Structures are given as C-alpha cells and as structure tokens.
Known about the structure:
Helix content is 47%, strand content 15%. It contains five helices and four strands, in the order E-E-E-H-H-H-H-H-E.
Amino acid sequence: MNENIEVLKTNDDSVFKPIISSPVSFTLKNNETIELTLNLLKIYRLKYKQPKLYENYNNALLKQKEADLLSLVTIVYTAYVCNKFETDNFYNFEEFLELCPEDLETLGDIVDKLISKKNK
C-alpha cells in the first residue's frame, strides 16, 4: 500500500470519498455550462500542481458538516480545475466567484453529486 495516499476523516469516523464517474455539468451565471469532476488521480495531480488549492479543498471537505458558502464554492472550483487544469485554460478563483451562482442549495446539490459520504 502506498503511504502517500491520504484518507479524509471527520470527527464522526466517516470518510469522504470522491465519486469516480462521469463529470457533473454545472451552469454558471453567464449561462456557460462547465464540467466538474473529482477522482483520485486528478486530486493527486492537483496536490503537486496547485498545492494551495489542494489544501483549501481538503479544509473545505473536513468542514463539510458546517459548510459555508465559500467552502462549497471551493469544492466546486476544485472539481472544475481538476477537469480543466491540464489545458491551462480555466478561470482563476476570483473569476469563478464572479460567475458562480450564489444559491446555497444549488451549490450543496452539486457538492452532493461530487462527493459521497460513506461510513467505514
């Protein structure tokens, strides 16, 4: 087993696992539809290519129970970058914030589609 793989745990002994599946579609305020994806390989690459975003993503995951708007946006943005970062053609975080819908329910639904919470 590779010791470099991290498992994200919460205080209630549950583990957050990215869904390894097809991308999720998400519509921005400018009506642009983007694809979001989280999978282990892309998150692993993100850790080394964008370590600050990786750190912010992990912090947002660990706070998911008391998630605030920016934590949800961080998870969605990370999924966006994971889908686009190999092209080097993607919005920076501030640009994404301007275009991201500010509806907490919509963001929560998207995060639910990207992240599955499963017990050990």
